[in-house]
Amino acid sequence: MRSPSDVDRQSGPVRVPDPTVGFWVAKAASTAFGEAASDFSIHVMPPVAAVLLGFVLFLIALGWQLTRRRYTPVVYWFTVAMVGVFGTMAADVVHVVLGLPYAVTTVGYAAALAAVFLLWWRTERTLDVHEVRTTRRELFYWAAVVATFALGTAAGDLAAIGLHLGYVPSILLFGVLILVPALGYRFLRWNGILAFWTAYVLTRPLGASVADWLGKPVTEGGVGVGSGWIALVFAIAMVVVVAVTARARRVLARESAVG
Description:
InterPro entries: DUF347. The chain crosses the membrane at residues 40-62, 74-94, 100-120, 140-161, 167-187, 194-214, 226-246. Keywords: Membrane, Transmembrane, Transmembrane helix. By secondary structure, the chain is mainly α. The protein has helices at residues 4-10, 21-44, 47-68, 73-98, 102-124, 135-162, 167-187, 192-215, 227-258. The chain has one domain. Helix 2 (21-44) packs antiparallel against helix 9.
């Protein structure tokens, strides 16, 4: 039997956002930003320095997020953006430095994500983002998020480069795949937690494929806009979406309080 203090800790404020439409739009923008920002950074500075800088910014963002103890839009999405950058770098470093094929890194990160989910479930008996109310659950949540970004990066590269599909066919492939959990949840009564995490994984290769297609040179199958410009565009998109959804959330909260 749990003590009153245990109950209080379990019933604190939720520390991560509800998966609304705005959430998914911001998440997709963050994946594209992370891919483009990672590519840009390793071209304007030594790769080792870029990875170290990405790791430091990720730790700073995560530490800031963990001290909030509630969902704070600016802090949360800054952390997601830094996870996007560092997660991309982690996946790329394993492939480039260690020379592991994309198929191997994809399977490896899938296994890592499965291990996080298993440990999370065995410890907390829930993977529901609506129940992320304690520091321990939030740590599991962010471990899963990092693993999904690395897995998505590897899977996107596997499709576009390893399987020689190219960026546009990869966008279409992952665009279709992400409809599966959405439609399954909407019409077939799929488990909401399973549908959420499946979609969460698939937004990464979809967003990364879009960023690569727009940013990569024409000689590599891209449009040739440049990764720096693409990172800037999607960073602005993230800021706008987060600002709009945060404002709508405040208005709804005020109306609920008045009502």
